[in-house]
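#struct-help
A.M.: can someone run this one for me? Single chain, 254 residues.
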Amino acid sequence: MVENNQIIKVRRVNFFYGNFKALTDVTMDVERNKVTALIGPSGCGKSTLLRLFNRMNDLIDGTRVEGNILFDGQDIYAPEVDPVDVRRRIGMVFQKPNPFPKSIFNNVTYAPKLSGITGKIDLEYLVEKSLKQAVLWDEVKDILDTSAMTLSGGQQQRLCIARALAMKPDVLLMDEPTSALDPISTAKIEELIDELKNSFTIIIVTHNMQQAARVSSQTGFFYLGKLIEYNATDKIFTNPDMKQTEDYITGRFG
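D.P.: on it. C-alpha cells below:
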C-alpha cells in the first residue's frame, strides 16, 4: 500500500562516481503534486540526486548507487526495472534549453512517436495539449513547422518542458531551468511551475534561493553530499533547525 501523498521515497542513499562519494546517507520523501526545491552550493550533490530519480547517472561509467529510491512503492534500481520506463514516467528539463534541430511540432512528438503513437490526429492533439500546458501554444500555434532553433531562449525552455510533458510523466525534474534565462523568461517559467504542480510532482534544483522560496513548498538544503535539512520551505527560510542552513541562506557561506 503506497502512502498516497508520497510519490518518491529516498532511503539511506549513497552515490559514488568511481571512488568519489558524491552523496552520503540521503533520506527524504517527495510529496505528490507539490514542488520540492533542492538548494546548496555548487558541487554539493543536488543535481546528482536529481539525476538519480530518473536513472540518468546510469549513463555515466563507473557510478554506483547504494540504498533505495522508491517511486510509487517500486524500487527504481531493482534489477527488473527498465530505466527507459522510469524516464518515461519521470521527465527531465535541463539547465540550458536543448531543443532538437527539428520543427516545433517534431520536437514535441519525437518521444511519443518512438513509444508508438503515430496517428496524425493523436499527435496533433498531444502537441496542442503539451504546448498549452507549457503556456507556449498561443505564441507558436501558427509556426509549428518552423525550426525550434528560431525560438527565444525562454520559448525554447518552455518547448523543452512541453516535450517532457508530451510523455505524460508523473514527475518533472528541473535542473536549474531558469539559470540561462533573462528575468522575464524566468518569471514565465516560475508561473508555469505554479500551474503545473496541480497535475505533476515537480523537483527543482536551483541556485536562486528567492526562486526556491517562491515556487516550492518543501526545500532540501545540501552541503558536501549530505542532506543537512529538509522541511517546509517557509520553515527553512525563516526558522531553520540547523545553523549551517541559516548560514547558507543568510549568505555567510556558499
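A.M.: thanks! The chain has one domain: 6-249.
D.P.: also worth noting: Residues 120-133 form the longest helix (14 residues).
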